[in-house]
Amino acid sequence: MQPEASSEMKEMRYVGIDVGKLRCRAAVMDQEGSITDEFSFNNNHQGIEHLASGLTMDDKIVVESTGSVWTNLYDILDEKHIPVVLANPLKTKAIASARIKSDKIDARILAHLLRTNLIPESYVPAKELREIRALIRHRASIVKIRTMAKNKIHALLDKHGLTYGFSDLFGKRGVEWLNALELSSLDRLMLNNHLQHIDSLNQQIERVDEEIRIKASQDEDVKLLLSMTGIDVYSALLIRSEIGSIDRFPDYKRLVSWSGLAPSLHQSGSMEYHGAITKQGSRTLRWIMVEAARVAATHDERMKQFYERVNRRRGDQKAIIAVANKMLKIIWFMLTRREPYQSRNLQLYKRKLNSLVN
After folding, report:
1. In terms of C-beta density within 10 A (0-12 exposed, 13-18 middle, 19 or more buried), how is residue 92 classed?
2. Which range is least confidently modeled, 25-34, 35-44, 57-66, 309-318?
3. Which residue(s) pair with 136 in the sheet?
């Protein structure tokens, strides 16, 4: 794409970009739906800068939110105030297959859908929130690797029929016991390697937790979220990063629906049937709310009573989902009204806040 020679000839163009890890394909469409240019460019800073040099603020660009390869392209264009739409790939494919009769979402189809205002947009968090999300997911990946290492030690103990009476095998006493076991030279080597690996991962998690604490201490929404029983610093920052600005949800129903915690609705004539939760939207937010609900159902008297009422009628799993749903509704009001949780445990809340500064 060549840079614009004159501002007098400008008219809106629609640019669809099929983003790849190394190369991107762009299609430029005019207002009548004709392709005026097609080209490829490298998905790096130099290639994106060359693309941007041929664009203006009168153009509209659409890219798919596939993995994380779109972020650099989006940020560079956004900094230059060139409007970019981030397309939801699953919904875009459904629309394209219905209207264009093609299973492949390429640059031309994206440009066409943008021109006809048929692009289902994905929410793009601010760059700072995306970095926090990356930090939180990095911690989750380290914890997952640590769990795998611990499972290998459990498998080694099972192999030898060894049992223990510690509540935490990987606490101080448990590790001392593991180090004292008499094993073959090969099994001892593997056990030592696993223990060293876990120790290294623990140190990595501690460093990440410190960074999470720093980020959390700078965020007023996190401080409000900490007032709710069942939410700690990690989960508060996770919830904050997933929700983004609460203003994008006009009411609590939109937030609950976006999390996938809303019950599905089936209509037949004048009858309505509510089924299982939709599980559509933010899987991460849904997961952390369920984890928080399990804690709140035990330690928060208000949530405990609600859990027990639902549990008697519908069982444990549905009761926990109901608690998670209720907590998320309350969170919407907390963040919208800028008020802490009304039924908060004051002593616990103070300890949580103090943990941010100590």
Report:
1. buried
2. 57-66
3. none
Alpha helices in the chain (DSSP H): 45-53, 71-79, 89-99, 107-115, 127-159, 172-180, 185-217, 220-225, 233-243, 252-259, 283-299, 301-314, 316-337, 346-355
Kindly give the pairing relationship between strand 14-19 and strand 23-29: antiparallel
**How many angstroms separate the CA atoms of 175 and 357, rounded?**
31
H-run or E-run covering 28: strand 23-29
Each residue's pLDDT tens digit, 295-323: 999 999 999 999 999 999 999 999 999 99
Q: Which residue in 36, 83, 74 sits closest to 56, CA to CA?
A: 83
User: Please, are residues 153 and 181 in contact by the beta-carbon 8 Å criterion?
Assistant: no
Distance CA 163, CA 160 (A): 9
Q: Which position has the token pair 């939760």?
A: 277
Cα separation, 201 vs 196, whole angstroms? 9
The Cα 232–Cα 227 span in angstroms is: 9
Q: How many CB atoms are closer than 10 A to CB 9? A: 7
Q: Is 106 within 8 Å of 122 (Cβ atoms)?
A: no
41, 24, 68, 335 alpha-carbon torsion, rounded to 10°: 90
Residue 260: alpha-carbon gap to chain centroid: 13
CA torsion 177→180→185→188, rounded to 10°? 30
The partner residues of 5 in beta bridges, in order of sequence, read: none
Contact by Cβ (8 Å): 13, 38: no
Q: Which residues pair with 37 in a beta bridge?
A: 28
Residues 233, 212 contacting (CB under 8 angstroms): yes
C-beta atoms surrounding 2 within 10 Å: 8
Q: Any bridge partners for residue 25, and if so which?
A: 18, 40
pTM exceeds 0.90, yes or no: no
